[in-house]
Amino acid sequence: MNTPHVYNKKTIVSIFLAVLFVLFLLITIYLIKVYPFYGFEMTFFGTGGNSTLTDVEKIYNVEELSKQIDEKNPVYIYAAPQKTDYKIAKTLGFGDTYEYDDSAEERIYSLGKAYLSVDQYGGFLYLTRVKNPTFPFPYTDKETMEMAKEILKEYDLWNDSINEWSTNYVKTTDSKGNTTILRKETVFWIRSEDGKNVVNQKIHVCINGNKELVRIRYDVKGYSKHSESKLISIEEAFQKIEEENFGFSHSLDNEPNCELKEIIFETVEISYREAESTDGKNLLQPLYVFKGTVKDITGKTGTFTCMVQANVVNSK
Description:
Strand order of the largest sheet: 3-4-5-6-10-9-8-7
Mean pLDDT: 88
Number of strands: 15
Order of helices and strands: HEHEHEEEEHEEEEEHEEEE
Radius of gyration: 26 Å
Low-confidence stretches: none
Largest sheet: 8 strands, antiparallel
Number of helices: 5
């Protein structure tokens, strides 16, 4: 005959406490992942932040631009940037000795002429300080990009978040006005976890004509928390533009005496921008990135990019 198992009071209490602990753990994980973050108004510098487009004619179609935004595709606010373990210093050949810059909150390493500064989130500037040749740079932009890509792979810095690339040039001009490209810098653009561009997180890799690495600037963060965010409408975004709360750049900016007459908004997409609030909160928040055509008063045309904060800014 089977004897029924009887739980004593101590066993029941132990089981109850174990269940409570598991529930507490699950709730904590849930809150870490999905608890809503409160965004803040971002400040934009440069044209559209410190100057005005009040007298420039703006041509756009709210309905057509709104169709370019997939409302079923969620957007997020990313928070709590992950701290670094500073292992990049050893990866680049530096030792354990460093100085600490309190104002910049960076560790400073040196090895011969080489220099490395690393911030608390893993962003860094690496200068090899090799002697650069003075002959014209002999490689195409694509060849330079492939060399830069291999360098990032060598240092275990290449990953699937890298999206697009562009090229900057280090030039010199002689007394006759002839310009020579001495070095090229490939700029790799980063995508967020949900596959959108992050406009101010990039990796810069500069190479000289001897195929030598000159500099790596690594401005990338990982985030441990995120929360789905509501978006303002395209119509509300244009209201922000009228209120001068946006970032703006265009290809005619270096033209002498350039004065814009007209800007035509043609496309829009959602990207992200990292910013820090006055109380030290560091968030990755969504943007509307508009692109299109500009025309100045002489009839010259070019392209522009206009950034407007896209998330609804809540207040507790």
